[in-house]
Amino acid sequence: MHLNPHGFQQHGPQQPQQQVEEGTITIHSPSPTGLRHRLRNYITVGASWNSLPEMWDFLAGECGDLTAIVDPVHPPDMPDGKRPPKGSETRLTYSEMRTSIGSMAAALIGLGLEKQDCVSVFSENSYRWLIAEQGIMKAGGCNAVRGATAPVAELRYIYGDSESVGAVVETPKLLKLLVEEGGKGLEGADGAEPRFLMVLFPGGKNGKELQESLNIPESIKVVTFSECLDKGGVLDAAPVVERSMKATLVYTSGTTGKPKGAVLTHANLLHQVSQNSFDRSEGSPMNPWVGDVFVSILPCWHIFERTAEYFTLTRGVTMGYSNVRNFKSDLKKFKPHFLIVVPRLLETIWKGVQTQLEAKSKGAQKAAGALTRVSSLRMKAARRFSGTVIRDSKPKGPEKALSAVLMGVTLPLKLAAEKLVWGKIRDGVGGRVKVVVSGGSSLPSFLEDFFEMAGVRVLVGYGLTETSPVIANRVATENTKGTTGKPVPGSEVKIADQETGQQVAVGQTGKILIRGPQVMSGYQNNPEATAAVIDKDGYFDTGDLGRFNPITGDLIVTGRAKDTIVLSNGENVEPQPLEDAISGACSLIDQVMLFGQDERFLGAIVCLNPLNMGAAGIISQEDASRYSGLLGPTPLTTGPAGTPKELADAEKEILGAPGLERAVMDQLKAVAGEERPWEQVGSVIMKFEPFTTSNGLITQTLKTKRNVVAERFSKEIDALYAAKR
Question: For the segment 432-442, what is each residue's pLDDT rounded down to a tens digit?
Answer without folding.
Answer: 999 999 998 78
